[in-house]
Amino acid sequence: MKDIKLLTTYEQLKALSDPFRSQLILRLMEKPQTGQQLSEVFDLSRARIHYHLKELEKNELVEIVKREEKNGIVQKFYQSVAGGFVADRTLLPNSGDLSETVRQMMVNMLERSKMRVLSTPEEALQEETGSQDPTDWKYLSSAFEIKATEEDFKAWQKKYYELMDELADIQKKNPTENAKLYYFHSLGIQVDESMFDRKRSEEVES
């Protein structure tokens, strides 16, 4: 699976802007699954699942990565072709559809993150230190609003990805038995109104 795939056709853009297909893509970014497995996850018929899978496959957004025979039936395992997607500049005239595609992917990613939080083990949420410094906690849960130029944001974002690679490399180079699996979800977008400032002003008025 590639890290990023370039979307070069309007059909690919439309396929990803479909709410349900973007949910399928996110599932198949995590691990390969069959149509039967996905039909059980989404409680939909196999025929309906296969219809959407074929549309995604036709647009080169998912692919069959392995086949297994079970009870005389060949099962096809589908996987997303990439861990992320970005639109080619030639698609910019369709900016409305492009924005909706990105928005839909973000919303579905938030839903997946919500499910991961709800299923996280209890011990991961038990903070025994009593520290008021969030950097001492064994979990990360924060929201920020920061004013910055687009150039400064992009420069910081580059450092952020480098930092994530640095953390991942620690166990790759020197694996230990006490290492735990951590799930990260980051979201950084421009907004028009500060919710934090509004909340503070509402508290003062009350």
From TrEMBL:
Bilayer-spanning residue ranges: none
Any one GO molecular-function label of the UniProt entry: DNA binding
Keyword field contains DNA-binding: yes
Keyword DNA-binding set for record: yes
Residue stretches making up the HTH arsR-type domain: 11-111
Keywords associated with the record: DNA-binding
Pfam short name (any one): HTH_5
Protein name per Swiss-Prot or TrEMBL: DNA-binding transcriptional ArsR family regulator
Native source organism of the sequence: Rossellomorea pakistanensis
